[in-house]
Amino acid sequence: MYDAVTAANIPGDALMVAGYIDRIVLAPWTDADWMRFPRAVKVEIVKKASSNRGHVLDVEPGDARPDEAPGWVRMRRAAGADPTVYCSWSAWPTVRAAFAAAGVAEPHWWIARYDNDPTIPAGAVAKQYRGDVAPGFDVSAVADYWPGVDPAPGGNGSPTEQGEDEDMMRVDCKAIPSNGFATLDLAGGDDARITIYPGRQPVWIGDVFWWGEGHVPGDNTTGGLGNNPSPGPDALRVSAITTFRCPKALLAEVNFSSNTDFHIVARG
Q1: What is the DSSP letter of 153?
Q2: What b/e string do you get for 14-23 counting C-beta neighbours within 10 Å, with b at 16 or more?
């Protein structure tokens, strides 16, 4: 897995990336930053313990404090997430002690130790073992199964295995080897997004469009906010959970083909 402050530093063909979705000093990743990695599993990091979003809380100087981590984990669990905390190897005992003092069960751990050894320490789910690799990214080893990020083992990628939000709309897409079409309603929020949960085989996405006020299904002339057409002449091959961000959208439309059943979820 690659992570970086600047998304453009990460190779575009990365299959797993982690980026920032809130701000303390530097700006978070933009929608365009996330869309650079259409084939990647995406891990969202927050720096502020007040951010009720994301997969991972960044605990290090200048970001969240060790004593703030238990409250963030409790908040995220209440929201249906299975959270992870990132910290350095040296700070890990201090952060774990904060959980013990607060009486909060420990989260999953992503540990940073720049020793060029990808071995994940016992009790952790990921290890950041190389830092600031030119042109400016970090490299982590990740367990085959990361709870809260990956679908549960033995499942088919269903979002119910990760917890459903109250504002979530799920469309169960049946296998259509030629051309299928799905329409999803959204609430127009800044964090509006749709997520593809592929089944046992990849889903081929032809186009993704999202719309604002004034769009009528089938009318591609009004209300348009954005689109993510597949690169090149071929459809986008989605073999891992993939999110398309569509801020302010009230409606999203997806063209697809798939030999197995899969799910599309809209949130926000």
Answers
A1: T
A2: bebbbbbbbe
User: Could you read off the pLDDT of 106-147 as tens digits, one per residue?
Assistant: 999 999 999 999 999 999 999 999 999 999 999 999 998 899
Q: Are 12 and 39 in contact (CB under 8 A)?
A: no
Is residue 190 predicted with pLDDT exceeding 90? no
Q: Measured in whole angstroms, how far is the alpha carbon of residue 219 from the centre of its chain? A: 31
Burial of 192 (0-12, 13-18, 19+ CB in 10 A): buried
- The stretch 8-33 carries a mean pLDDT of 89
- 211 vs 199: CA distance, rounded Å: 27
pTM above 0.85, yes or no: no
The tokens of 212 are what? 């604002």
159-267 CATH: 2.60.120
